[in-house]
Amino acid sequence: MSTHHQADKTPTPRYKPYKGPAGGWGALISVAQAWLTSDNALKNLRMMLKTNQNGGFDCPGCAWGDSPESGLVKFCENGAKAVNWEATKRRVDAAFFAKHSVSALLEQSDYWLEYQGRLTEPMRYNPETDRYTPVSWEAAFALIAEHLQDLASPDQAEFYTSGRASNEAAYLYQLFIRAFGSNNFPDCSNMCHEASGVALAQSIGVGKGTVTFDDFEHADAIFVLGQNPGTNHPRMLEPLREAVKRGAQVVCVNPLKERGLERFQHPQHPLEMLTNGDRPTNTAYLRPALGGDMALLRGMAKFLLQWERDAQAAGEPAVFDHGFLNEHTTGILDYTASLDDTAWDHLVEQSGLTLVDIERAARMYLKGKNVIMCWAMGITQHRHSVQTIQEIANLMLLRGNIGRPGAGLCPVRGHSNVQGDRTMGINERPPVAFLDALESRFKFKVPRENGHNVVEAIHAMLEGRAKVFIGLGGNFAQATPDSPRTAQALRNCDLTVQISTKLNRSHLMHGKEALILPCLGRTDIDIQAQGPQAVTVEDSFSMVHASNGQLQPLSSQMRSEPAIIAGMAAATLGTHPIDWNWVVADYSRIRELIADTIPGFKDFNTRLQHPGGFYLGNSAGARQWNTPTKRANFRPNVLPGDLIDERTRATGRLPDLILQSMRSHDQYNTTIYGLDDRYRGVKGQRDVLFVNEADIVRLGFKPGQKVDIVSIWNDQHERRVKNFTLLAFDIPAGQAAAYYPEVNPLVPLESTGAGSHTPTSKFVAICLEAASPSVLIAANAG
Ligand SMILES: Nc1nc2c(c(=O)[nH]1)N[C@H]1C(S)=C(S)[C@@H](COP(=O)(O)OP(=O)(O)OC[C@H]3O[C@@H](n4cnc5c(=O)[nH]c(N)nc54)[C@H](O)[C@@H]3O)O[C@H]1N2
Ligand SMILES: Nc1nc2c(c(=O)[nH]1)N[C@H]1C(S)=C(S)[C@@H](COP(=O)(O)OP(=O)(O)OC[C@H]3O[C@@H](n4cnc5c(=O)[nH]c(N)nc54)[C@H](O)[C@@H]3O)O[C@H]1N2
Ligand SMILES: [Mo]
């Protein structure tokens, strides 16, 4: 039995607190190791120097943006890993698949699967040999067309997108699928920043962040909530450090003491490196209960309201920005009433913080003339995420902190083009204006009903309502909740198609028929009929810029994502509503179509010539409120009475702990680069559970002991992961943390955010049990 993660040999698991700063020598050593151990060292060094430079390619890592003016080399340790990983010369080809059956591959770890290299030729599953065997592109497209045309309704297919797809690929994909007749666009965003989009659209009329890169230089206070930039957005540490240096407040809100949020050493700053100096990245650090952020934010607003009333009574300067409130907002009275209705006790209890802490945070917010609030998955993956994000907006509106320099909202996006994909229409609930624009430009009747998001798509496949799954990138089987049910959902399909760069578990959890279509990545040179092509992406600050691949692809059999989409579309729809093969010959033809139909992209091809790209604009950032009231809306949501779900309560079993799932320093989502988590001091293992030592003792275990984790949810499914090592860690009592995707089997498909449908990956009620004996025997035997 091989359920372990190791590729070649098993490193000894170790845990030792990390003492260095984030970035700095540790990061450089790690990059150097990645280069030296990579089989393409020199080539990759040349690559890194091209990352995020004009004329180079957009880093396939995160969606953080860069100052267009800055001449700095713009890459980070984890960007280096992402580039290296893609630019391997190892190949997963016909010979590889001839050697390994699908059942044998299923025994391998996620790390092993991706480590085997790049997919280099189209493959089709053969049930007789349980192997993937080569198939021609034409036969693959014909098979897809046949399955799609045989469906009783276009809505019996699910079309997934992961956020690396370029604007050009995403636009063609949505056009193909809408012309085919469906809005079934489950995408990674449904599991990620969906709540930010939903919440902000209602509050301020646009579902994106309102700040740009330059605003960080002018902020007096920056709040970083539920985000671990040291690992996931390392380029963000520099503006944070600069802010602290110039005396701005940086307030971190995170139950874990993340190293990058504590100290940072600039890897491109020689003096700092030589003296081994480092700089703090925060001025205050609050450690709330999981899901306690809304209570904290509301508590801060309640303090402001109290001080506003005090100031009025004393005839002192106002705390609220009344000019802004009068001119730009609506609903303030309902909102202050909801503040009055929320008891202090409730705020303290739910936030997990003291009143003193909440007051201190409120004072820091008040002290900042210009405030930015940033957030990521610690905020978006809860049941009440939409309400929490609206509370961020409420708090910011009170002092006019939206739509002026140095201030604003900053949901820090994940995948490098996840924001762009939405802009291009990857949206299961498309805005009417967008559908109208498509209809008038392309003259076909676009589907108007909402389609499926990720969770709805899984239900549809489980129940047999959906029969075809096509994935434009990503790793649907591993990224989604309730893993065994998702696997079943994919296996129920008549056809699964994965358009991918690397082998992953989604290729192995396949339908009755299955295809693997190998595509070019961001770093690869993309040549079409009219010559080399650039693609475009949009970062977290709504900057659109070009990305040019730099490396010769490993095989001439790999195709670009736009070319694959055009192939599927032409086979399925002929030349309706466009000549697919003609537009992919030259991507500027796709950009013309984008310019015709999507606001902000007029003269797309011309504006792209501008070094650093162009700013799409943000209506709320310009204080134009595209809401039905034409104003920014205060949203007087009710603070949840109890964060523990009634479906957990209904079991009658009280959870031992609340679990959050998170990323280690050595992974990119479901892509595992290695088994270490440097800043958290973990080496050589991923099946660990971070728990407070007092809780370990309270529950009758010992640190280092192996346990099973079961989730507490009232339905017929047992959710259990086995043989996790208990790690005594500096984490607030009552909480636990573990790595995604290992604990995804614990997240119930039905446990989703209200209004966002996002799985509650940061709030899972669990109990611990002594490790299953069967596993222990297997482990001893092996
Ligand atoms: N190297 C690397 N870069 C990445 C990724 C990657 O996997 N690897 N993934 C990309 C993607 S798609 C995304 S979405 C982003 C993800 O970026 P992050 O959101 O930083 O990712 P997570 O590891 O999920 O971290 C969540 C953080 O929130 C904290 N947290 C958890 N629950 C709560 C809570 O209830 N309240 C508060 N205040 N904090 C909480 C955790 O302690 C942790 O520090 O990163 C992107 N960049
Ligand atoms: N429990 C738990 N679950 C989570 C999360 C969590 O925090 N906790 N986070 C959620 C979040 S924020 C996200 S964004 C999702 C991520 O979900 P996904 O985006 O589906 O997953 P990834 O791991 O990013 O996908 C990796 C695969 O993408 C393919 N790939 C890489 N580059 C390219 C490319 O350029 N083109 C194509 N076509 N394919 C490519 C490779 O084959 C690789 O194996 O997971 C979500 N799931
Ligand atoms: Mo994400």
Automatic annotation (TrEMBL):
The protein's matches in InterPro entries, at most eight in alphabetical order, are given as: Asp_de-COase-like_dom_sf, MopB_CT_YdeP, Mopterin_OxRdtase, Mopterin_OxRdtse_a_bac, Prok_molybdopt-oxidoreductase, YdeP_MopB
Gene3D superfamilies registered for this protein in UniProt? 3.40.50.740, Dimethylsulfoxide Reductase, domain 2
* Any matching Pfam family: Molybdopterin
Q: Which organism is it from?
A: Pseudomonas taetrolens
Could you tell me what this protein is called? Answer: CbbBc protein
Q: Which SUPFAM superfamilies match?
A: ADC-like, Formate dehydrogenase/DMSO reductase, domains 1-3
UniProt keywords (A-Z) are: 4Fe-4S, Iron, Iron-sulfur, Metal-binding, Molybdenum, Oxidoreductase
Its cofactor is: Mo-bis(molybdopterin guanine dinucleotide); [4Fe-4S] cluster
Q: Which family does it belong to?
A: Belongs to the prokaryotic molybdopterin-containing oxidoreductase family.
